[in-house]
Amino acid sequence: MTKVLGHWKLFSSDDKWDEYMRTLGINFVLRKVGNSITSYEEMKQNGDQWELNITSTFKNAHLKFKLGEEFDETTLDGRKCKSTFVIEGEDLVHYQKGIKPGEVDSKITRTRVDDETMTITLEAIGKDLTTVRTFKKYTP
């Protein structure tokens, strides 16, 4: 599963991105930041060890993981969750489980659309809400 490896730059978000963030409990100020920043992702794999570097004009994150193994994650907006990455078909899927009662879980699916495009579909589990962000391949 190497289709999503490489460097990606946010190209667009659909009209449900803000609603998705609000559903997760992200406050107004952080949603405004989330709506205005440019985000970059770099996905690397070395054997069974994967790395996801997310950088933006606001905050950065670095995740190291093995497929199927749960780990502790602090999201860019500060939420703490239990995360697991798995392969489903041709997609890399990231499950985030909230730790606090009432927190919304997420399913984040990275799909390679073509040589230059990757979509990230974010689903608020149990809330009937999905948003799609489109990334384009780039050379840093």
Automatic annotation (TrEMBL):
Domain Lipocalin/cytosolic fatty-acid binding: 6-122
GO molecular function terms noted in the UniProt entry: lipid binding
InterPro entries membership: Calycin, Fatty_acid-bd, ILBP, Lipocln_cytosolic_FA-bd_dom
Superkingdom in the source lineage: Eukaryota
Swiss-Prot/TrEMBL keywords: Lipid-binding
UniProt feature coiled coil, ranges: none
Keyword Nucleotide-binding: no
Homology family: Belongs to the calycin superfamily. Fatty-acid binding protein (FABP) family.
Protein name: Fatty acid-binding protein homolog 5-like isoform X3
Organism this protein belongs to: Crassostrea virginica (Eastern oyster)
Gene it is expressed from: LOC111134857
